[in-house]
Amino acid sequence: MNQTDAVSTNNTIKSAGKYRWSICALLFFATTINYLDRQVLSLTWKDFIAPEFHWTNSDYGDITALFSIFYAVSLLFAGRFVDWLDTKKGFLWAIGIWSIGACLHAFCGIATSGIITGDWFVGFHGSKEIISTVQDTALVINVSVALFIFARFVLAVGEAGNFPAAIKTTAEYFPKKDRAFATSIFNAGATVGALAAPVTIPFIAKSFGWEMAFIIIGALGFIWMGFWMFMYDKPEKHSKVTPEELAYIQQDDIVDGALAGGVSEKSSKVSLADCFKYKQTWAFAFGKFMTDGVWWFFLFWTPAYLSSVYGMDSTQAALPLFVLYMITLLSIIGGWLPTYFVEKKGMNPYEGRMRAMLIFAFFPLLALAAQPLGYISYWVPVIIIGIAGAAHQSWSANIFTTVGDMFPKKAIATITGIGGLAGGIGSTLINKGSGVLFDFTQRNWSTINGQPLLEKYPQFQDAVTEKAFLAEKGVGNLEEFLKSLTTAGENVVNGINTGYMIIFSICAVCYLTGWIVMKTLVPKYRPITDL
């Protein structure tokens, strides 16, 4: 059977069975939970956690940056771990570990109290009262940040298994031409998780404490594990997958065999060194390096952006964030577009995917206008960031499936892990850089009634005098002090606005840069058969 015959046969067998979409739904809910767990900190740190532990933007940047690198390194091994354990057990281990990690955040306050004062057997409220009596705020910062970093480490190790396992499952249950669409559906779980987070997490934190937000959201993963245990098996072994649906799922085996001249896929173990011999690996890794950080920046810093630039607390920001992530649901188109190019324009899967990714790469350029037009209304940057986020998710669904296009199934999770490592490195750089940049611009570029902050208040030139000055004014950090000046009628221009403009500009050009390099490394479709 040639490729044309295989495509024409699809129409007769496509409706024979639909169980693969039940598996896709499970992947969707896993990804939703994944992103809910990841969002709890970003939606609680500014209003609830930072005042308790005296954090700055740089402290939060350190935590998010280290989470990114933990996640990145874990992705490298998670891919091989999933390949080794195989999909079912690998996924169970992943979500079990990250759910434990999510819940661990809730106990960081109690642990901070125990380490500093020796009072371990206290409740959440009791730990707050004890920490508030500690005069050494630097010690509180260092201990609490270290504990949150540990909790983020456990979360990252577990969450790293989600996408390698999900991509491997997609390759098992879908033919190549449908994988981008299936990936866009489960990847939309990231958007739905981000969408649900701002309308649930801040209100849980406000009503029951930030600790309960971590516990309640973290517990969802344990529920998902039960469904996975009973619903998943290999398609060729699953009683609910009909022979017709299995034939549809495995249609590429014949086509790829023909393209490879009848050479079958080897069964030997895939090594990392072998993977790096292929330009396809480097293309995927570079694309992830350039673009993953953009999404993580929007995910981790948009709530803080609305707080710093527009003075919103986490509950006031709920509606704008909900609308923002609602816009990103347009990313479903990202899975449909390459299928259109393949079926209607006669392109091969890789060519159709790269054409679609080029289109998506232009939309983030709108981010260049987010800050300059933000004076009109906060809705302008919210809508622009939403469009950029939708473009990212569309891009992400397709860049993930380029791995399945090119590599044998046994290597997919490993290659995905390599790309995840590259993406995590990019995310680490942008998150750490953002925190440092925002503190720098706020301190050095802010003005009060036209006078530079450091001239009017030289106390901020030294950490010791700054601490004493803020304590005297009854505020926890520089941003709170600037807000108090604004409330008092002073004309305050916060330098952090320029910091966000710089980061938005970097984010805007990342996708076109990534696409150009990817296309240069792998200009045409050619499946790998010697790995």
How many strand elements? 3
Placed side by side, the strands forming the largest sheet appear as: 2-1-3
Shape: globular
Summarize the main sheet: 3 strands, antiparallel
Q: Tally the helices: what do you get?
A: 24
Q: Order of SSEs, N→C?
A: HHHHHHHHHHHHHHHHHHHHEEHHHEH
Q: Any low-confidence stretches, pLDDT <50, length ≥5?
A: 1-10, 258-267
Strand content: under 5%
Question: Helical proportion?
Answer: over 70%
**SS-based structural class?**
mainly alpha
Overall average pLDDT: 86
Distance between the termini: 24 Å
From the alpha-carbon coordinates, what is the Rg to the nearest angstrom?
24 Å
What does this structure look like?
The chain is mainly α and about 525 residues long. The protein is built from 24 helices and three strands. The protein has a three-stranded antiparallel beta sheet. Helix 2 packs antiparallel against helix 8 (about 160-175) and helix 17 (about 330-345) crosses helix 19 (about 380-405). It is globular, with a radius of gyration of 24 Å. The two termini are about 25 Å apart.
Features:
single chain, 531 residues, 76% helix, globular, disordered N terminus, MFS transporter, membrane, MFS_Na/Anion_cotransporter
List strands and helices in order, with pairings.
Blueprint: H1 3-13, H2 19-53, H3 57-85, H4 87-104, H5 108-117, H6 124-132, H7 137-159, H8 162-173, H9 176-196, H10 201-208, H11 210-231, H12 243-249, H13 251-259, H14 272-275, H15 279-310, H16 318-327, H17 332-345, H18 349-362, H19 379-406, H20 409-444, E1 447-448, E2 451-452, H21 453-456, H22 463-473, H23 478-487, E3 492-493, H24 496-521
Antiparallel strand pairs: 1-2, 1-3
Helix pairs in contact: 2-4, 2-7, 2-8, 2-9, 2-10, 2-11, 2-15, 3-4, 3-7, 3-20, 4-7, 4-8, 4-11, 5-6, 5-7, 8-9, 8-20, 9-16, 9-17, 9-19, 10-11, 15-19, 15-20, 15-24, 16-19, 17-18, 17-19, 18-19, 18-24, 20-24
